[in-house]
Amino acid sequence: MFVFPVITKSISYAVFYTSASSAYIDITDEKCNLTISSSDVTGTCTMTVFNYGKLDHIKVIPDLTLVIDFSDRVKFDPQLIILDSHTTTRVTFHVTGTSTELSSAFVNSTVNILILDEIGIDS
After folding, report:
1. How many other C-beta atoms lie within 10 A of the C-beta of residue 10?
2. Cα–Cα 20 to 30 A to 76, which of 8, 41, 42, 84?
3. Cα–Cα distance between 69 and 63 in angstroms, integer?
């Protein structure tokens, strides 16, 4: 039944309306399309962000533990994502990084997106 998730999300928006913490961000449907060439990693990631509170930005990186555990072989540059308060948004962002062990690979897979911290926009 579809009613329970809709009610739960609606209640979350109401309960966490004034919260400004990444604890009240939910990320789903993460997917990245990455290319590793000469140890340079580039690509695009997409995700759906549920911002139940009023946080206006998050800093994220892909986590490749779902993809044959590349997490210790690829280091990503954090990406700043600007958010609107109290919304559900589909976000696409570019990623860059370096590979410590892989010199060539293509990754097109579901991944986890990690929220690193809450930072000031001027940082």
Report:
1. 10
2. 84
3. 9
Model pLDDT for residues 32-87, shown as the tens digit of each residue = 998 888 889 999 999 999 999 889 999 999 987 766 656 667 889 999 999 999 89
Contacts of 89 (CB under 8 A, 6+ apart): 48, 49, 51, 83
- SS3 for 90? strand
Provide the H-helix boundaries in 1-123.
Answer: 3-15
The CA distance from 123 to 97, in Å, is 20
Question: 121: which 2 tokens?
Answer: 């926009």
Please give the structure tokens belonging to residue 105. 């690979």
What gap in Å lies between CA 67 and CA 110, rounded to an integer?
8
Q: What type of residue is 60?
A: V
Structure tokens at 83: 């958010």
- Domains of the chain, residue spans: 3-117
Alpha-carbon span 119 to 103, nearest angstrom: 32
Phi (first) and psi of residue 72, to 5 degrees: -90, -5
Q: Which pLDDT score is estimated for 14?
A: 56
